[in-house]
Amino acid sequence: MFGSLQNWPTLGKLEKAGVHIFLAGDSTMEEVKADQGNKRGWGEFLSPFFIDGVLIINEARGGRSSKSFINEGHLNLILNRIMPGDYLFIQFGHNDQKAEEERATDPFTTYQEYLSVFVEGAKEKGAIPVLLTSINRRTFDEDGNFVNSLGSYPDAVRQLGDHLMVPVIDLYEKTKSLYETIGAEETKKLFAWYALTNPSYPTDDTHFSSYGAEKMAELVAEGIEELGLPLREYLIKKHV
User: How many angstroms separate the Cα of 149 from the Cα of each of 152, 173, 174, 196?
Assistant: First the structure.
């Protein structure tokens, strides 16, 4: 996994790897620097679910929306390297909800338009785009019932996937099911704040602990299997 263009492997090394999966997304996916505390992105933990020869190139960036990721040039960095037969996994939504102009999108208009740029860019390069709905935050009401904090953004991804005939890994539904199954208290183990010993540290119901990020990566692998993507041939069956 590589954080910037100058740290990527040479073209020769990319050509020798069997399969390349590029990741475009936000902080729930990114490779987190050590000085950012206990939070981890699931992209850090995806590689062990595959046999040797599958290269994960994690270009996810914390704080980015589908809009700002493109406007800051991060998508171009990917498209300049991606090759025919590679995969581009696309997961945005958390920061598209933000109010700032540079990040904000509307679910069924600008959000879908920006996601379409990722999809069409990958297709033009002969790569295979895969859309992912956003991972749920840890949001429960006082009675312990799960609460949707993502509005219509997951629906917009599903609709776009149908329209563009692009596979969708529904992490919204997968995480909702997981959270409801294990309950509000047990889900704390999935998130970064649970591992901190300082009681004054603010809770974090968005970013994952190492355990939680690995569990999210497992859900992604599960989605690959369920969709019947050719990538499933390279999966290692494991559970965390």
Answer: 9, 13, 15, 24
